[in-house]
Design a protein that fits this description.
The strands form two sheets. The protein has an eight-stranded mixed beta sheet with strand order 3-4-6-5-7-8-9-10, sandwiched between helices. Helix 2 crosses helix 5. Helices cover 40% and strands 12% of the residues. The two termini are 28 Å apart. It is globular, with a radius of gyration of 21 Å. By secondary structure, it is an alpha/beta fold.
């Protein structure tokens, strides 16, 4: 997801633990949502004190138990005022507050709800621990972080999830958790933007030799090879829809079917695009062409996005903006996905396809999805009555139901 434009209210956040879950579960989830950003930022990130935040001792204990870089509470030291530090401090504080108010000191919940055992139990149930990353090498030698979850003997076809380029796998937690009930699910984080698990500076890995759409699409096939899958359904979210289409065109025998959800799709100079798509393409192009100006572009984007990305997904959606160097890498890799004209690929896609969009999407133009659906023989189109771009990541039961219906075969697909 290319830092979504400000949109209207989306669906409830089905990625997140319900408000009725124990506080330990909600706090652990919030800290793990922050973990990719914390690993990319100078440590410790200092969040401003305020109502609704756990105290410093609790944060220190939970982050240490989870193996996550520390979060300080208070005014950052002079050396901690890196570019964007204020924005990321606000993002972190807002996500922590969504866990709900901490238990009152001295209460039963406070005394027994945040023990090491409670933190460990909550972490064990988290999708990030159920789908831990492992690093494999692509054929060109680029390290790839692959997450796998779901049963060893699945009841449905395996699924390769192509999420939004540049975003941590956790952004697609709703889909990983929901599909894993019946399917073996794989997802690959974008080459060159993530390092080995536990590496606090993963984006400093050597820049990949190949950065284009084809190489990134082939990483999905590498994940299938590593899992021993002859074929799989490929699900593309946002810019991942372009990767899914490229994989299906390049490897028709490996992609048994595909689904494209609110795709960010380049269809030539006259293709449908929102202002957000045009503006982001232009800014990423400027950052690639003139690295000396990338810092100003990066800071300008952070300022523009401040407060416009919902608190529940902001730590994940803003990960590729954590550092100017990371932003430049993102501009190269996501730019290759956003800038590649997909029209020559479409006649080569023969797999059954489900194309999903909504007129409420102001981030990725719904007209692009409609144009692709017309070009794919026999594609099934679902234009949702409502649902902004972010809602695909927040999730909703009807989204999972429609995906499962399609995966069960044409006879199971609701009209």
């Amino acid at each position: 997801m290319s830092s979504p434009a400000a949109e209207g209210p989306g669906t409830a956040d089905h990625r997140a633990a319900p408000r009725t879950a124990p506080y330990a579960a909600r706090l652990v989830e919030a800290v793990l949502d922050l973990a990719p950003l914390l690993q990319a930022l100078p440590a410790p990130l200092s969040v401003p004190p305020g109502d609704g935040l756990p105290d410093a001792a609790v944060l220190e204990r939970v982050t240490r138990r989870l193996g996550v870089p520390p979060i300080a509470v208070g005014t950052p030291a002079a050396g901690g005022r890196a570019p964007g530090a204020e924005t990321f401090a606000q993002v972190a504080a807002a996500r922590l507050k969504l866990a709900g108010p901490p238990p009152e000191p001295g209460s039963t919940a406070a005394e027994g709800g945040l023990t090491d055992g409670a933190v460990d139990a909550a972490a064990a149930r988290d999708i990030g621990r159920a789908a831990p990353p492992r690093t494999v090498k692509a054929p060109d030698g680029t390290p790839l972080r692959i997450h796998t979850t779901g049963p060893d003997a699945p009841g449905g076809p395996p699924v390769v999830l192509a999420s939004a380029p540049g975003m941590p796998a956790r952004l697609a937690a709703f889909w990983l958790r929901g599909l894993a009930a019946r399917h073996r699910v794989l997802t690959v984080e974008t080459r060159g933007l993530f390092g080995d698990p536990g590496d606090p500076g993963g984006f400093t890995e050597p820049f990949p030799g190949h950065t284009g759409l084809d190489a990134q699409a082939d990483d999905l096939i590498t994940a299938m090879d590593e899992a021993g899958l002859a074929d799989a359904h490929v699900m593309g979210l946002c810019g991942g829809a372009a990767l899914a289409l490229a994989a299906a065109a390049r490897h028709p025998r490996r992609v048994s079917s595909l689904s494209l959800w609110h795709g960010d799709l380049e269809l030539g100079p006259d293709g449908p695009k929102t202002d957000h798509q045009r503006n982001l393409q232009a800014l990423m192009g400027m950052a690639r062409a003139d690295p000396a100006s990338a810092g100003l572009i990066h800071q300008g984007l952070l300022n523009a996005m401040r407060g416009s990305v919902p608190a529940d997904i902001a730590p994940l959606a803003l990960y590729p903006y954590a550092d100017t160097g990371l932003f430049v890498r993102y501009s190269v890799l996501n730019g290759a996905v956003m800038d590649t004209d997909l029209r020559p690929l479409l006649p080569r896609v023969t797999a059954p396809a489900l194309v999903v969009t909504s007129g409420d999407d102001t981030t990725a133009h719904p007209g692009g999805s409609a144009e692709v659906a017309r070009a794919l023989p026999g594609a099934t189109t679902w234009t949702r009555p409502h649902g902004d771009h972010i809602s695909v990541f927040r999730g909703a039961p009807e989204l999972l139901a429609r995906a499962e219906a399609f995966l069960s075969g044409p006879s199971g697909l609701a009209p």
